[in-house]
Each structure stands twice: as structure tokens, then as C-alpha cells.
Amino acid sequence: MATTLLSIQILPRTPDGEGVYSYVDRAIDVIKASGLPYRVAPLETTIEGELAELLELVRQMNEAMTELGCPSVISQIKLYHNPREGASMDRLLEHYPGGQ
User: What is the domain range of residue 48?
Assistant: First the structure.
């Protein structure tokens, strides 16, 4: 079982001031490629994993933005780390079945 949940909102400054959707799509592609469980929501994406691999994933997403030509990127993250009992999106949401 995973020990950490990480939620991220990535805000790239695009090279020519265009919209960010294609850039956010690329960040989500990086998450998909990791094979980790994740959920995309309107304002952030939440991922389950181990702390070190999640932080590495944040690095990879930021580098992907740089590779696309973004001069800068803001990554707002939230972490829930529970090494004793583990961390699960399903467990945290079990009391809110309509909110999934």
C-alpha cells in the first residue's frame, strides 16, 4: 500500500502566452507513464505512491514543461504522508461516495 498522497496543480508560463491545456495534458501524460494510481480533478490531480517517487514525479513534470519551452512553472503541491497506516484516495473518500 502507498504511504503518500500528493496533489498537484501545475501552472506553466507558456512560451507565447497561449492557453495551458496542452501543457497540463503533457504533465498528466507524465503521471500516466508512471503507472501510479491518480485522479484528475478540476483544480488539481492527486497521485498515490511513495514519497520519494512522488517528488521525483513532480521533478519530471516540471522538466516536461521546460522541454516544451516554458520559461517558468509553478507547482503547488499538497502531501498527505502516513507511513504507518498507508495513504489511499479510496479510504479518504469512503465517507463521500457521491464526491468521487
Answer: 4-99
